[in-house]
Amino acid sequence: YNNNNNNKYDKRHSREWSNSPTSTDNDPVIAEQSLKDLLCEPVLIGLFGTYSIFVQQATVETVMTPTTAMILGWQEKENAYMLVAVGFELLLAFLTVGPIAKKIGDTGVLRLGTGAISAIVVFICLYAPYSAREVWWLMPVFVLSVAAFVFFMPYIVIGTAAVLSRAVPTHQQSTVQGLRTACERFGQVLGPLLAGQSLNWNLIWIFLP
Question: Residue 166's closest CA among 5, 43, 26, 7?
């Protein structure tokens, strides 16, 4: 009796496996469909957005201390205060993403973060030429622009992760999340290398990637 039950289970399991997305009966077809799933527009946008925001994050972390020293004359104490404030601001920003996502959706969160940071980068490029001059408005404008940049970073991080998770079937989730992590690490490695250009007062070029 047990052997009969085991045989029935094995046959049923074999039929389920043959009908599953990971079946090897139609490998070329499945491989082509998997490639199409990975090359769809939401996945490409999510991966590029992930790479971009982590390049910018690593760039800001790399140039912040020398930039504040050159432009504002800040030392260790002032930079420590700024980093503490950035930590609290990031916590607040992550807490605001959830309620906003319920209003405008995951795609809306990504659009909001991308639009806001793009506008901030353009604004930074506009006042960057005045950074070598001792103007009274430089410090408040610099602090406000950095604060706004940091606040909207979680919107892109969470928005891209949500878009990627919804863009592919369940059996492709691990592959997409692996690609997302690879883009994060690639951006964190490449960001500091590209940020060195800003130390030569070529501030606009660091935003090109």
Answer: 43
Q: Name 190's Cβ contacts closer than 8 Å, sequence gap at least 6.
A: 55, 58, 209
For 93-116, the pLDDT digits (tens) are: 999 999 999 999 888 999 999 999
8 Å CB contact between 187 and 52: yes
Residue-level length of the chain: 209
Label residues 174-203 b or e (16+ Cβ within 10 Å = b).
Answer: eebeebbeebbeebeebbeebbebbeeeeb
Of residues 204 and 154, more confidence is placed in 154
Q: Which of 52, 40, 29 is nearest to 166 (CA)?
A: 40
Amino acid making up residue 158:
I
Q: Which residues contact 137 (CB under 8 A, 6 or more apart)?
A: none
Do 162 and 104 contact (CB within 8 A), yes or no? no
Task: With 0.85 as the threshold, say if the pTM is over it.
Answer: no
